[in-house]
Amino acid sequence: MSHEHPGYAEDKAAVLKRLARIEGQVRGINRMVEADTYCIDVLTQISATTKALEAVALKLLDEHLAHCVADAAAKGGPEADQKIKEASDAIARLVRS
Amino acid sequence: MSHEHPGYAEDKAAVLKRLARIEGQVRGINRMVEADTYCIDVLTQISATTKALEAVALKLLDEHLAHCVADAAAKGGPEADQKIKEASDAIARLVRS
Amino acid sequence: MSHEHPGYAEDKAAVLKRLARIEGQVRGINRMVEADTYCIDVLTQISATTKALEAVALKLLDEHLAHCVADAAAKGGPEADQKIKEASDAIARLVRS
Amino acid sequence: MSHEHPGYAEDKAAVLKRLARIEGQVRGINRMVEADTYCIDVLTQISATTKALEAVALKLLDEHLAHCVADAAAKGGPEADQKIKEASDAIARLVRS
């Protein structure tokens, strides 16, 4: 974990790949409902998709803490406080969603 | 709430519409990451999408309890027990996802 | 799973035991904060306690679906619809909490 | 938000008060089950208690990010990376619990 965003390019590609897969999962759920698939099977697929989205959010949050928040904290001052407040609010939204 | 699935057609159309919107939200998140949108804004969008997926799951579960589970319970026997077990397991997956 | 609440006595004893343990966990968290325990360790303990509470809720919900809701559904009529609506609302609260 | 823990004393007192209230809520749930209170009412109380515990966790996490993590990030080096990794893991546990 460095603060110069090395390898951000790979991370970004990996995140985009995961999001493309999630988009496909949602499309699959749509097709399942369209085809009157048994409700419990649709719910299983929705739970898996929600977990996959949460995992992407946690990944982005990790990056954000390790880069933006850490850089701002290293500089200190009001911007540091604001970045931390902002991250806390985003975490609260994730925990509650 | 009746057990003969009245208006199921409308419900299905509404669920499909919601899923199409969620698919669009996921595509939007992909574009945000692609365009290096500020991480906190991406997280806000992911939280909203997760909540929307959960709402669809709760809607499908309501229908399932009101129709399949209620019908099976009305008939009784091992099938009723199995339907209830299955619903409980799906609820546990939702609560934990 | 029967609808005459057999073994409800044992289940109740088990649920009470789990709740007593959770009460002890919360008391332990209080002591940790009192003693200025490292924040991350307190958070780990809170996550474990939240999971334990959720597990009790899922257990009670299972029982409720298998007994109250199944009985009401077997009888049918408006009471059945109301029990199912009530269970759906409780599930939504759990998923969102 | 400063990094010298001003007013930490008040925050600690407030957190301890909230935890004492949560302990009372869990004891109340125990009494409800003991008295065979209607299951749905017990579930409502459990959801409220889970939310209260989560709110304490988010409060502690805010403090932790604003003090420990910010201080470590300001100093930099491997300790900063480790504190951020540790916080990310705690956040993941909270989101999943």
Automatic annotation (TrEMBL), chains A, B, C, D:
Keyword flag RNA-binding: no
Compartment(s) where it occurs, according to its Swiss-Prot or TrEMBL record: Cytoplasm
GO MF, any single term: transcription cis-regulatory region binding
One cellular component (GO) term of this entry: protein-DNA complex
InterPro entries per UniProt: Metal_Tscrpt_repr, Metal_Tscrpt_repr_sf
One of the Pfam families matching this protein, by short name: Trns_repr_metal
Record's keyword terms, sorted: Copper, Cytoplasm, DNA-binding, Metal-binding, Repressor, Transcription, Transcription regulation
Transmembrane helix in keyword set: no
Chief location category: cytoplasm
PANTHER family in the record: COPPER-SENSING TRANSCRIPTIONAL REPRESSOR RICR, TRANSCRIPTIONAL REPRESSOR FRMR-RELATED
Family per record: Belongs to the CsoR family.
Full protein name: Copper-sensing transcriptional repressor RicR
Organism of origin: Aeromicrobium flavum
Upper taxonomic lineage: Bacteria, Bacillati, Actinomycetota, Actinomycetes, Propionibacteriales
